[in-house]
C-alpha cells in the first residue's frame, strides 16, 4: 500500500509562493549586509556535540538534535553500564552513541569558525550567515523545530561605530521592507551597575532575567520574581524607579549617572550609551531608537550594548535583536576577541509582512510570458524566440503539451503569467509573433526577429 | 582548558572566498532556472525515516543519517529484545530510537512534496530546489557527508519539449559559467530493448548497471561483469557491437532500429531519441550533444531519456545528470505522474571553475570603498557620505578604529577593497572628500554632497 506522505512535526515545506516571499526577505537583508561590507560564510549543519554542549544552558542541551553515529552504532555498547535505579540513563547513553548534533544557532558555530580559521581571516572580521538551525522544542504556533536565522556580526574591534553600523543595517532593512519599527537599546554594564547599586552584585543574571520579562509579565510579577531570587524588598525598591524611568534619552542618562554613581561598571555602561546615542543622532537614522532599561535579553554572553527591534504596526515579539559580547571565542581558546552582532528573525518578519500585506506584487509568478502549444510545427517556429528572450533574462516558457487552449490559459492564470502568445498559421506565414497582455487585454504583433521590441513590450 | 575547535569529518566550513564562488555558481544556475519558468521550493532537512527508507537500496539505507528521538530516547527500551546471537541488532534498535533522518537527496523529498501538496500545485509543475543533502559515506577527496544539490524538475507532462528545455538549461548554465561541456544522451527504453534483444529481458538492471561502468572499468571488465550476472557469452556478444557503436546520431539510430526490431519497448525508445535529437537540432543549442549507448545511470527510477554532462577541459566525473521517470510519486500514492529532471553537481562545478580559473574578478571583495578612520570628528563628518553611498547600493565601510594608517591600508588590501578615502582637516575645511583608486593610483576630490559624482568614480 502506498504511504500517506507527511513531514516531521515542527518542520515545514515551502512552496513557490512562500519561497518567493522568503527569498524577497533574505535578498533584501543580504543586499544591506553587503553594502556595509559584510561577507557571507556557511558552517556545517552538524557540529561535534562537544562544540555545542554546555553553550546554551541545561535547557539548550536538552533541545539539541543528536545524530546517531553511522554504522553499527549500538554494536559495542554495554547497556547494563547505563542502568540506574531510575531506569536507563538516556543522557549518558545518547552521548555514547551520538557524537554529532545539529546546529542550534549561528553564534556558537561562528565563534568556533573564527577560532579555527583565525590565521586566514582579516580582522575586524565582518561576516553574515543565513542558515537553518534546529531545536527540539515543543512545536507551537510560530515556533518550529527547523527555522532560518540571519546573523550579522563583526569581531575584532571594540569600536561602537560597529554598534552604529548594525543600527544602520536594521534601519535600512526595515525601511526597504516597508515595516515601521522601533529599536530598543540598553547596555549590559548598566544592568551590572543596577545589581551593584541595589547591593546584590552577584545577582546580575537573576535580575536581568527578571527584568527581561517586564514586557511579558508586568512590573508586579517581576518584583515578585526578584524577591523569589533572594533580593530584599529594599533592593527591589531601589530598582523599581529605574525600571520605570521616563523622559528623553539625555534625561534618562542623567538620572542613571546619579543612581549608579557608586558603580564603576555602571558608569562605563552609561558612557557607552551616551557615545552610541551621540553617533545615532549624527548619522541621520530615521528609525525611532529608545533607551529601554527593561531590555535585558536572556543570553548571558552579552557584555555591552544590547538591541531589540519591535514592529510598530503588528503585534508580535521582537523581530531582530543582538548585542556586544566580549568573550564569545574564549571557550574555544581565543580570549579578548570582542564582537557585536544582531540576528534577524526571518519567520517573524515573514509573518509581519504577510499580516501587513507588504510584499511587492507579482513576486511568485513563474514566468513573464507563456507561449501556447499549438502543435509541433508552431513550436519549431517559436523555439528561437523563446531562447532569445531567455538570453535577455526574460522568463519565458512554452506549454509542453498541445492541450486545449482553455487548459493552457488556466495554467497561465494560476501561475500569474502576465503575457500570452498564441502562434498559428497566419503568424508563421507572415513571420510574426502575437503577444497579449492578459491584464490590459492589449495585443501586439512583432516581427519574429524583433526580440528587442518583444522584450520592451514584456517589461 | 579551552576546547580545540574542529568539525565533523566529511563536513566543511565555507569562508568568504569560497562562499562568493559558490554563490556565483548558485546565482548563475538559479537565474537560468528562473528564465525558464521554474519556481523554487524547499523541503525540511529532516524527513520521517519511513519516507526515506527503501528508496535508495540497502546501501542507501545504511548511509542515512538518523536523528535520535528527542527527550528520553532510551527510557522505555527493552534492550534484551534486541539481542541476537550475533550481538545487538543495531538496525532494529536504531529504528526504535530514531524516527527521523536527514535528507539523502532532493528527488524523494520532491516526490513526497508533489503528492502531499498535489491539490495546491499547478501541473505541469516546474520546480527547482537548492539545498544540502547528507550521506554517511566514507569521506574522501571530493566526497563529503554534507553537500549541496541543485535540482530542476518538471512533473505532470510526458512531452519531450521538457527534455529539450533541460538541455537548453544545461547549455545556458555552462555557457554563462564559461565551461565547455558535452551532453551525453541515451534512453532507458533502448537499454530495455537491448536486454530483450539479447534474450535476457529480466536482466535490464544488471545489464544497465554493468554498462554504466564502461567508462570507468572498460569493455572487458563490463563483459565479465555481465557473464558474472548470468548472461551467456552469446548474449554478451549481441550487446558488444551496440555498445561500441560509432558514426553520426542518424547512423546510430538506423543501426539500433534494425538491432532492436524485435523489441517494441526498444523501438519506442528509439522514436523518443529521434524526436529529442530533432528538437535539439531545431533549437540552436551550441553545446555538443551525443547519443551514448553506454550511458545508463545507476538509478533505477529512470524510464525514458537520460542525460549526463562532462566537462571537456577538466578531468572529473559527470558534473550534471538526470532523466525521465514515469512513476516516482507512485510509492506515495500518486500513480502516472511522469516527470523529468536534472541535478547540477555544485561541488564538482566548483572544482572545475577553480581548476580552469573561470571565476570573475573581484568576486569576494568585501566592499568597494574603505573610509579610513582618522578620529571622531572626521568620522562624524564622513558618516552621511557613507550612508548615502550605501543607499545607492555601493558597498562602503568605515574602519572601526582610529588605528595606524598602515593597519587600515593592510585591511583594505587583504579584503580586496579597491578605493580608499582619507579625510583630514583640509577636506573638512573645504567640505570635500578625497578618494583614491588603489589599483591605478588615481586620486580625485569631490564636494561632500556630490554623491552621484563619487558613485560614478567608484564603478
How is the secondary structure organized here?
Two copies of one chain form a homodimer.
Chain A: H1 16-35, E1 39-40, E2 46-48, H2 49-52, H3 57-63, E3 66-67, E4 83-84, E5 87-88, H4 90-97, E6 100-102, H5 107-116, E7 125-134, E8 146-155, H6 161-177, E9 181-187, H7 188-197, H8 204-212, H9 214-228, H10 233-243, H11 249-259, H12 264-283, E10 288-291, E11 302-311, E12 320-325, E13 339-344, H13 346-356, E14 369-371, H14 376-391, E15 396-398, H15 405-414, E16 419-421, H16 425-430, E17 432-437, E18 443-447, H17 451-458
Parallel strand pairs in A: 1-7, 9-10, 14-15, 14-16
Antiparallel strand pairs in A: 2-6, 3-6, 4-5, 7-8, 8-13, 9-11, 11-12, 12-13, 16-17, 17-18
Give a quick rundown of the structure.
The first copy, chain A, has 459 residues and is of the alpha+beta class. The first copy, chain A, has helices at residues 16-35, 49-52, 57-63, 90-97, 107-116, 161-177, 188-197, 204-212, 214-228, 233-243, 249-259, 264-283, 346-356, 376-391, 405-414, 425-430, 451-458; strands at 39-40, 46-48, 66-67, 83-84, 87-88, 100-102, 125-134, 146-155, 181-187, 288-291, 302-311, 320-325, 339-344, 369-371, 396-398, 419-421, 432-437, 443-447. Chain A is globular, with a radius of gyration of 29 Å.
Amino acid at each position: 500500500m502506498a504511504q500517506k506522505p507527511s513531514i516531521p512535526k515542527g518542520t515545514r515545506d515551502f512552496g513557490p509562493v512562500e519561497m518567493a516571499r522568503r527569498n524577497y526577505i533574505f535578498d533584501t537583508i543580504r543586499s544591506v549586509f553587503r553594502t556595509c561590507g559584510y561577507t557571507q560564510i556557511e558552517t556545517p549543519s552538524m557540529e561535534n556535540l562537544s562544540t555545542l554542549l554546555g553553550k546554551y544552558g541545561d535547557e539548550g542541551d536538552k533541545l539539541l538534535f543528536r545524530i546517531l553515529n553511522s554504522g553499527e552504532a549500538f554494536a559495542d555498547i554495554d547497556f547494563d553500564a547505563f542502568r540506574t535505579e531510575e531506569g536507563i540513563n538516556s543522557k549518558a547513553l545518547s552521548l555514547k552513541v551520538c557524537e554529532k548534533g545539529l546546529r542550534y544557532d549561528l553564534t556558537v558555530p561562528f565563534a568556533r569558525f573564527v577560532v579555527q580559521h583565525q590565521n586566514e581571516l582579516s580582522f575586524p572580521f565582518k561576516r553574515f550567515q543565513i542558515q537553518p538551525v534546529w531545536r527540539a522544542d515543543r512545536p507551537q504556533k510560530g515556533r518550529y523545530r527547523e527555522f532560518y536565522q540571519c546573523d550579522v556580526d563583526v569581531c575584532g574591534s571594540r569600536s561602537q561605530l560597529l554598534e552604529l553600523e548594525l543600527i544602520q543595517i536594521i534601519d535600512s532593512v526595515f525601511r526597504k521592507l516597508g515595516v515601521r519599527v522601533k529599536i530598543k537599546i540598553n547596555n549590559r554594564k548598566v544592568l551590572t551597575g543596577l545589581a551593584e547599586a541595589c547591593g546584590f552584585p552577584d545577582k546580575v543574571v537573576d535580575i536581568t532575567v527578571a527584568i527581561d520579562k517586564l514586557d511579558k509579565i508586568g512590573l508586579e510579577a517581576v518584583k515578585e520574581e526578584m524577591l523569589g531570587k533572594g533580593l530584599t524588598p529594599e533592593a527591589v525598591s531601589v530598582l523599581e524607579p529605574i525600571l520605570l524611568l521616563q523622559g528623553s534619552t539625555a534625561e534618562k542618562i542623567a538620572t542613571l549617572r546619579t543612581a549608579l554613581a557608586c558603580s564603576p561598571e555602571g558608569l562605563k555602561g552609561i558612557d557607552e550609551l551616551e557615545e552610541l546615542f551621540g553617533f545615532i543622532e549624527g548619522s541621520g537614522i530615521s528609525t525611532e531608537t529608545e533607551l529601554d532599561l527593561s531590555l535585558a535579553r536572556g543570553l548571558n554572553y552579552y557584555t555591552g550594548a544590547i538591541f531589540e527591534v519591535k514592529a510598530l504596526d503588528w503585534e508580535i515579539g521582537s523581530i531582530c535583536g543582538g548585542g556586544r559580547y566580549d568573550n564569545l571565542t574564549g571557550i574555544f581558546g581565543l580570549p579578548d576577541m570582542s564582537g557585536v552582532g544582531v540576528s534577524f528573525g526571518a519567520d517573524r518578519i515573514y509573518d509581519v509582512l504577510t499580516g501587513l500585506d507588504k510584499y511587492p506584487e507579482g513576486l511568485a509568478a513563474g514566468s513573464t510570458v507563456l507561449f501556447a502549444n499549438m502543435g509541433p510545427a508552431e513550436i519549431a517556429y517559436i523555439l528561437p524566440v523563446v531562447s532569445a528572450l531567455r538570453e535577455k533574462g526574460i522568463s519565458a516558457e512554452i506549454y509542453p503539451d498541445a492541450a486545449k487552449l482553455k487548459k493552457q490559459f488556466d495554467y497561465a492564470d494560476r501561475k500569474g503569467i502576465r503575457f500570452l502568445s498564441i502562434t498559428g498559421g497566419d503568424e508563421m506565414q507572415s513571420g510574426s509573433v502575437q503577444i497579449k497582455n492578459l491584464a490590459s487585454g492589449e495585443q501586439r504583433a512583432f516581427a519574429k526577429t524583433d526580440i528587442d521590441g518583444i522584450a520592451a513590450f514584456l517589461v
